[in-house]
Amino acid sequence: MSLDFSRKPELAPLAAVVRDLMLRHAHGIAPGRQTEDVDFAVMVRDWEAFAALRAALLASGDFAERPGAATHRLRHQATGLPLDIVPFGGIERADRTILWPPDQSTVFDCFGVSEAFAASQSVRMPDGVSLRVASIPALALLKVTAWQDRKHSTPGRDAGDLLLYLRHYMDCGNLDRAARDHGDLFAADDYDHEAAGARLLGRDIALLLDRQAIQHVLDILLPQADPHGQLLLAQQSGLDLEHARRLIEAVCNGLAEI
Length: 258
Hints:
Protein name: Nucleotidyltransferase
Low-confidence stretches: 1-9
InterPro entries: AbiEii
Largest sheet: 5 strands, mixed
Number of helices: 10
Helix content: 40-55%
Number of strands: 9
Shape: globular
Organism: Noviherbaspirillum sedimenti
CATH architecture of the largest domain: 2-Layer Sandwich
């Protein structure tokens, strides 16, 4: 199957499946939490385009509806793997949220999705399908949004993934680039390899965003780096609290430096 991006919704896999590709397969880093579902971001001009995509997936026979009212949740018939279709683009409101039809009672925060898509790369899969794959900075950005949205409803689901990116970013093919272009990361007498990588990740996330969006991310993360705060993100990460807090502080420093 080939996708004509000029006329059909543009697709990009997000979150766990790309996390596994980028960490385990590209860099030999164990992702920890097993992939439980597949999220696809889909750029659509309106809700009619989303409905048409959903109908086409169901009509193919490869996908089935999942129980519940949520129309974006399907299941792949052959593998049983849950599939979530995350629409964005023309359906977003000014505050970057969408209201799910028909009753618009469910609100979804799309912050970071369009930025992640813009920074994604096209990858051709073995069966000829072309997909746009999000980068690690984009995935980390999406995890910040996801954690902020569901930190109370599903604690621990997103914090562990976000801290995984912070801990291992330097080892995801970034060491030579950091040494060449970010020499200040290595200048401290108490050099911390993971914290330096988290700071670099903050800088790379900032490159995806405008000033207002950077501040939005900092507004979420800075309270989680406060040693006198509740440290909810650190608590949910599964790491030692001070270890996690220092990594969060490092990514905030990187974000603020751009």
